[in-house]
Amino acid sequence: MPRAIRGVLIECEPAIKSIIVHLDSVNNDIIIEDLDEQHLVVKENMVHSLKQKLEERLRETYRPEEPLADSD
Amino acid sequence: MSVGTQSYQLVDYLEKLPGTTFRKLYQQPSTAFAIFRRMLPDLAKLFVQALLYAPSPLLLSQLDIWVTAAGKLQRDRALSILRSLHIVQISPPSKDRPQEIQLATNFMNSLRHALEGSSTHSSFGVPSTLPVDSTIDVNFLDRYARKKWEDILHYVVNSVGGDGVGVGSAGGAGSSSGSGPKASVKDLLLAGRLVERRHDTRSGVGITQAGFTFLLQEANAQVWTLLLLWLEAAGHNPDLGMESVDMLSFLFMLASLELGRAYDTNALSEERRNMLPSLVDFGLIYIPRDTRQYFPTRLATTLTSTSSALRSLSAGFAAAAANAPGSAPGDVATLGPAPAATADTKGSIIIETNYRLYAYTSSPLQIAVLALFTQLNMRFASMVTGRLTRDSIRRAISYGITADQIISYLAAHAHEEMVRAAVTKGTPVLPPTVVDQIRLWQLENERMHTTAGFLFKDFDSMDEYLALSSYAEEVGTLIWKSDRKQMFFVSKFEQIRDYLKSRKKVE
């Protein structure tokens, strides 16, 4: 008999996925199944906090240039 | 933009009510009349009129006389609306008798009374016989209602606040004399999730996506949104001694009253007198001090009509833009049942390809709305300037406002010069670069796409995997699969489970 596991499928870029894998490596409490480069299944109750952590991580590393301030 | 949404909301609410509630509601001629006038499509009205004075039930097939073959769909829709509002009764189909249709007794009697003005019911309000203060005229009531309503809108908008943008906050507390809506109204907005508690704002609450949708609605739809929240709140709290059926028929009664006339509070039941304070808070009625009179405002009298209640937010912006500061108070011209279409075409926002934004307005409300997603820089007597930045858009998105909402707001309020230029050049009204960039800024926030569901794994054989995954694909629940890993992910579980069971039986 096959098994059915409740969870949330996440589809994202490989770069984002590697961050999620890294976040999971601390407590191993996020990922249920690592599917492929762009897909993984995570626990339903962790999605919200995962999104927040991801946002924090991206804020540290990603800072695009704004157009120059108004000169008028 | 959102014309007619109010009746949809109301229909949704009404359709959930049980039949007994409708029987009570239809005891009031004003309710039956308001429902007939406002909630029914034309064909349904025709059916009601045909049945109204019919001495005995009509055969259902007789209604087909009015309907061409092509109109069958409309006939079915009309009948289903009439049934869901419990206006007609249709006998169940049987072999020996053809189906018959008739009006529900209460509805029929009440609508007859409403049309004939018969019986001595007070369903359409009892005018006050006491002397009336002559300063309370239509202009006064319109000013009063608008003030009350804008306070509520301000509360929703300014729930953002505290971002340090000078212009934005200037549009807030300082402008509307700082009174704001009553605590009960604030609670309703919270309960309806138009705003939510948040600690990072000055007022302790923040606007939600539903709140932004609310702001973009026509005034009439906004009023109904709030009133339905009020009805629901009363339903949850029986201690208040207000029955939602009575509240609803009271609202329908208010809608039938005449603007500018004084009505007698003593003619109301005690329950209804208890509702008056809430209605005052919403701006639906005005009660002068120490009198036994109440005046319905335009917010109340237009509840069940198609003419616009006060001005919509968008029309208000246009009016504010047209009114130089210091013009006569109570710009009455903008208040009347002015056709919303002309008002809507007068936008005030100009946006350039370099993300700079100019809004020709002095309306604190519009400025506050703009401050939700714009970095405002300067404010002049009749205009504000600012620009859309990554941060300002992302902040708006973090409140739950979507990129599409911002874009449609900008498009709906674009200055007529922008519209004219776009028409002559055959280009979109908003600069495509800006529109795309707003969408991209939103996408940055959505780094991953999530789907809740079930992962299937550990199959006994490749055949079993293939059979189940292709079945999931057939029923349309398959989201992802890997033949190599022999796993797949589905959004729903039930069909696969049933399929597995049925296969087991066969084996």
What would CATH call the class of chain A? Alpha Beta
Which shape of chain B, going by the Cα principal axes? globular
What portion of residues of chain B is helical? 40-55%
Q: Give the distance, in angstroms, between the N- and C-terminal Cα atoms of chain B.
A: 59 Å
Structure classification of chain A: alpha+beta
The most extensive interface, with participating residues per chain, is:
A-B, 32 and 37 residues
Instruction: Write the CATH homologous superfamily of chain A.
Output: TFB5-like
Proportion of beta-strand residues of chain A: 25-35%
Continuous helix count of chain A: 2
- The value of Rg of chain B in angstroms is 28 Å
* Approximate helicity band of chain A: 40-55%
Oligomer status: heterodimer
Task: Please give the order of strands in the largest beta sheet of chain A.
Answer: 1-3-2
Average of pLDDT of chain B: 79
Number of strands of chain A: 3
How many domains of chain A? The number is 1
Largest beta sheet of chain B: what is the strand line-up? 9-10-12-11
Care to count the β-strands of chain B? 15
Total number of helices of chain B: 23
Structure description:
The complex is a heterodimer of chains A (72) and B (507). With 72 residues, chain A is an alpha+beta fold. Chain A contains 2 helices and 3 strands; from the N terminus they run βαββα. Chain A has a single domain, classed as Alpha-Beta Plaits. In chain A, strands 1-3-2 form a 3-stranded antiparallel sheet. The mean pLDDT of chain A is 82. The longest helix of chain B has 21 residues. With 507 residues, chain B is of the alpha+beta class. Classes of the chains: A alpha+beta (72), B alpha+beta (507). At the A-B interface, strand 1, strand 2 and helix 2 of A face strand 13, helix 22, strand 14 and helix 23 of B.
Give a quick rundown of the structure.
The complex is a heterodimer of chains A (72) and B (507). Helix content of chain A is 40%, strand content 28%.
